[in-house]
Amino acid sequence: MNGHAVSIHSLQEESAALLEEKSLSDIESDAGRADLESRFPSSHSIITDAAPFHQKKFKPKATWQTTLTRILDSLRSTLVRTFIFLLPSFITSSISHNPKVKKKKPGPTAYLDGMRGLAALIVFFCHYFYTCFVIAQSYGYDGLSNHHILKLPIIRLFYQGPPMVAVFFVISGYALSLKPLKLVRSRDYGSLLATISSLIFRRGFRLFLPTFISTLMIMVLLRVGAYEWTREFAYDDLYMRNVQEIHYERMNSTAEQMADWGREMFRFVHIWDWDAYEGSTAIDVHLWTIPVEFRASMMLFLTLLGTARLKTVWRFVFVGAVMGFVYRSARWEMVLFYMGMVFAEWDLVRGVHNSPSGTREEGAAEAAAYQLEVLDGLEQQGIEMDGETIAGSEEGGGSSRGGSLGLDRDVQVLFVDDGDDTEKTRTRRRPPIRLRLLGRPILTKAWWIAVSILAMYLMSQPDQGGEETPGWVTLTRWIPKWWYAPTKYQQQLSSCSSPEENETEQEALLFGQGQDQYRYYQSLGAILMVLSASRSLFWQNIFNSAPIQYLGKISYAIYLMHGPVLHTVGYAIERFVWMNITGVETDRAYVAGFGLASLLVVPIVVWVSDVFWRAVDEPVVRFGKWLEGGCTVSMD
């Protein structure tokens, strides 16, 4: 999101995208530029530095030859810097590697950044594949046409986009909640107010400003004729055999085009109702999630403020009740955001985010203190655990308190009481045998791997035809009838012209053919996948690998750039390959051409996304912080 020099500097350091927004301070930015200057000096600077001191002090009168030399040096320097900037950041970081800089280990939530990056790549694959192949239906649906191995559950996830959107929303809820919840738990309410204010102020810039720029780039491509190169191809049934995305219209004049862009962007910033697809823009149909993300973020910030002064256990209870309400209201996006909030606080309870000066023991003490707080709340409500009512003396006794939370046998925990700030100790008995078994490392690993497999199966819910797909018929019928939004339900019923059609339409809506039917299990699967990844070193090692972490850095850029790249360069490459190399006379030739074209299209999308990340995305983050700093007053 910054210039080239900053990207080199930033790739050598740990990404803290989920703890704080990715940005560099002005000092770091200056250091990055100085670092680049030292590694890639301009020819002019080399000449100047090499000159003797007396020549620097007493320069001869410039002649046309020296002026021309300076112009050529400046031009050569500019070209070199431009070339370096346009290289992918992972290449420039390798050729300018500083051996003095030690590579830091990934942070405790770096894996979530990797998950987000991989999800963004899969969304791109989805929009790339679905123009040519029917991918919404799963294995076994409608006879032999859906018996390809790539349509099997879990395997199909590498090109199934909708569940990746659900992953985005869980991670967003986590990332936006983490810092405020840290401040809530430390009772630093002054800093909490400043943090929430900052997040709200910058959220619109963070989400909408990059999309304004990406859609403006599409306007430029339209004016120079780049979209005209592939306009006929984009609507040719011979090549685009499934989804034919909107290939945006080229207006008669630049003024008319820009006025149309302004109107589209005004509608795009849609905050006035909660219809999922309101605010979508035909300029790039993939951007419908951005207004949804903005609205959900505002609701999350409101919830964080509203629950800030609650005790931890009651905050969980209240957020759980709110989640029940939004679930019953079929607001799947808010369920995902709130689950991200719950996961963030639970990680704080577990001591995952101890400060560098803290110790593992301090994190364990905080987690144990919270467990006792939970038990206190449950005890007041008379809730039973493991078949026994939670009761017992301060010093232990014969109760089973703490059993289901897995506290060790006869562990005395020092904690601070919320009421009088006095230190107390409590002793808890040994947990049930099933939890002692789950405490074994091998069984724990196996358990979370099993949960992740279940999660991936649920994420594989077909986008279409689940009611007739083997393995999904019963699950689809289990989806509650109220899952579909009442307004949409009523609108679709009112469009029927006869009682018979009314009955047919109602049955279709109630049993799995509504607009958001496929979101039900995909959302549940995304929740379980993020949960299992937070507990499994196996998944964390995968998501913390260098290639996946790189995708995490450019994830938003991939999301914004894959559309315009596909509609211009991507379609042109596909057309060339099919027309000149493989042909499309047979299915095998068609697939071979698609695969051959993808060898160029995929790297180009990643490359353009990398450049957009450094040129637009990172500067936008810094701009938001700069603007906030210039407009706000100090709270000291």
From TrEMBL:
InterPro entries: Acyl_transf_3_dom, Acyltransferase_3. One of its GO terms (molecular function) is acyltransferase activity, transferring groups other than amino-acyl groups. Residues 110-343, 523-606 form the Acyltransferase domain. Keywords: Acyltransferase, Membrane, Transferase, Transmembrane, Transmembrane helix. The chain crosses the membrane at residues 117-137, 157-177, 207-226, 312-330, 437-459, 550-569, 589-613. This is Acyltransferase family-domain-containing protein. The lineage of its organism: Eukaryota, Fungi, Dikarya, Ascomycota, Pezizomycotina.
